[in-house]
Amino acid sequence: MLTGSIVALITPMDDAGEIDFQALKSLVDYHVEAGTAAIVSVGTTGESATLNVDDHVKVVMKTLEFADGRIPVIAGNGANSTSEAIALSKLFQSSGVAAGLSVTPYYNKPTQEGLFLHYKTIAESSTLPQILYNVPGRTAVDMKPETVARLAKLDNIIGIKEATGDLQRLADIKALVSDDFALYSGDDATGLDFMLQGGHGVISVTTNVAAAQMAKMCQHAQAGETEAAKAIDQRLMPVHDKLFVEANPIPVKWACCRLGLIPNDTLRLPLTTLSSPLQPEVEAALKQASLID
User: What are the binding positions for pyruvate in this chain (predicted)?
Assistant: First the structure.
């Protein structure tokens, strides 16, 4: 089981919106050196919703190449079409990725039975281990603990990224699944508490800009060094907050560019760069966390 600080990696792009593979290599090296536990490539923070399938696959495969066995890679394979998620799973199943991270189908608002059948069909279609991803604030559908429990019984479904920010949700799921079912927070602001209450790690946006600090925080949490972990978390709290002043990944791309981790903060439409009035707020958060002078 992967544990600790897992980065929901941004996808760097050049001025024309094409993938910047040199910047991607630099980001992978940055996370290896900082002690990040694993990389999620082309998850929702990696702009999976606006990358075409060809670019999606290229970025995952290049991330694997650049990682070169030094850090595990999880591939985003979610879609609001079950057939598309199956196709991505099949493409990645023999690639060397550790698992797929599959977001709940967005917009079409399936029932709980629809969610169960969606993930069951994906899991049965390939040998790629599947991590569920529940983020109702973005998808308009909430996968309930009882549905997670049904899915956790399937051999190929190994964990969940739970991004409601509701710690009671963690307790509810934890009571229904086995100890070897991986529980990851998808909410940086409550990620430490999630780990201290029995979660296994954080699939994090903040880790894009504070990789070493997030890795150390998670290590402290895993070791039971609560006060040390809380000290880091409190220092990073302004970043946890301000990286969501506009829709993710708009602020984190701007922050990565401000820190010199990528050459520019280009996104693909319909996403646009961080609004000028909000840029000082994100910069101030980076300063408060001692990420820049």
Answer: 45, 203
